[in-house]
Amino acid sequence: MTNLLSARPAAEPDARPRLPALDGLRGLAVAGVLLFHAGHLSGGFLGVDLFFVLSGYLITDLLLRDHTRSLTVFWGRRIRRLWPALAVLLPGVTLLTWAFGSPELLRTALADGPWVQLNLANWHLLAESAGYWDRFGPGRVFGHLWSVAVEEQFYLLWPLVVFGLRRQRAVALAAGLGALASLGLMLVLTDPDRVYTGTDTRAFALLLGALAATEPVREWVKRTLPSWTAVPLALGLALAWLLVDGEKSPMLFQGGLFALSLAAALLILLAPGSVLDRGLCWQPLRGLGLVSYGLYLWHWPVFLLLSKEKTGLDGWLWTVLVCAVSLGLAVLSKVLVEDPIRYRAAWARGRTGLAAFAASLVVVALTWIVLPRPATAAIDTSALGGRPAVSANGPKVSKVLFMGDSIAEGLALPLTAAAKASGLTLKSMAAAGGGGVVGPLAESTWAELPRVLTEFRPDVVVYQVTTYDWGSQAEQRAGYQRLVREAGGAKVVFVTMPPIRPDDFYAEHMAELGRTTAAVKEAGGEVLDSREVWGETYQRERDGRIERSSDGIHTCPAGAARFTAWLLDGLAARYSGIARVSPDTWANTGWAADKRFHGC
């Protein structure tokens, strides 16, 4: 690491002299992210916000000092800085995943890779409902690159503003107003995943850094705030990193992230030359900052490919191993790929540079075409036997509304295919990280449900009890009774929650979830006990078939198919209008390859 410091190439043209303290801040940011992903620092994800603010500050400072006012020159420098490491990472990690990873890990890599290449990974993940806070979501080796996409979108658009306005005060005004507009969007949008990974709702961090880079703001801070205020700012950020816990800290998404980004912007201005300067200039910390880009790129794929399950290690021993491997790859990336192309390769500039860039884009794109997709296991329909009872005079059913959380999202896939084959129309309101009618995430469900009921007019509402149905039994009963009332003339069928294998996130709520069955029985409506499908406790395999995900929560295609046959039999025994069809008509119609099945 020290050698990297002594051998560091000269700064980019027209930039301010490099401030070692900012390298130290960058080192702290990447260390926080690594510790968060390793499970040791609940607020370490806030290192990404520090990255954003630093990027906004440094890029805006560079743009304001760039007297050439050339977008092509600026974008050329950004491409040489960012693309070479990505051009190695994307096919390299995909090939490693193909060779050593699980089928679902390869499936998501091939699906996400093109969007990373297009700098749209954050919007792709939102469209895929691959929530950042979904602790049991599918492993995605490129899932962390949503933040790189946000930065690259900023690098594409913000120079147009700076070069268009030219004057420092105008740039400061644009950055300030843009940051406030981004804050406004954060306050209006309620979904933590949408707020956290959307470019528009995270732009305030980059723009606050940009605001700090302008001369009027820089001078005002120097006149107004003494350098010692860097200490309480740093302590406040450190306290947040220690105490906040993602989506369980709602204040983050109600202005907290803005406040922390503002503190980071002030710290960037005040830390150099303050009492913190010596600590931030500590060479190992600076060295970590100098390889932070490559370290951020490589750490998450390493964490997944060298998982605790594969290595047989746990705790700090596993953390030290994966962090050491990630750091080694980051140093190799910087020494062999990033710095040579960025600073010394004459061919990387001009027409030859453009040709090389285009060729590398094609080579990386071929990765997503050439590598074969993993085959999807066929569903054994012989295991989908059903009960013979069919109602001849029960209420007639033609439309079914299915509700629940991410477990229900997976179950809805075969349900939709089977319902169609049975003459039913099924609509799913299942939602990852929510979807419930009781507990901390029910608000969005109640906001949407009246419209869906009015427009869809279901005959039956099937509610799969969610893993977020937290609260007292009285609170749970009230939520379920409200669903019965809101459903109006539609019948309500409650399906009890499948047994789960809790981790630390769910452990404190298991007693509450254990009361849900009693609460639904008190609420009115029909109750179907899913223990008939899943058993009393979590079972990954049944009769040699993998039915539940390795995460201990979700279902696999074989289990989802058996649940579907069971649920349709249960509905057919109570309501008329449901045609009995062979599972062969819906069990192997393509839904089992969906990305929402993972860990199978």
TrEMBL record:
Q: Which domain of life is it from?
A: Bacteria
Any Pfam family: Acyl_transf_3
Q: Name one GO molecular function term.
A: acyltransferase activity, transferring groups other than amino-acyl groups
Membrane topology qualifier: Multi-pass membrane protein
Of the GO CC terms on this record, one is: plasma membrane
Q: Which GO terms describe its biological process?
A: lipopolysaccharide biosynthetic process
Which keywords does this Swiss-Prot/TrEMBL entry list?
A: Acyltransferase, Cell membrane, Membrane, Transferase, Transmembrane, Transmembrane helix
Instruction: Please give the start and end residues of each transmembrane region.
Output: 27-60, 81-100, 170-189, 225-244, 256-276, 288-307, 313-332, 353-371
Residue ranges of every copy of the Acyltransferase domain listed in the record: 20-332
Instruction: Decide whether keyword Cell membrane is in the record.
Output: yes
Q: Where in the cell is it found?
A: Cell membrane
Q: What is this protein called?
A: Peptidoglycan/LPS O-acetylase OafA/YrhL
Q: Give the taxonomic lineage as stored in the record.
A: Bacteria, Bacillati, Actinomycetota, Actinomycetes, Pseudonocardiales
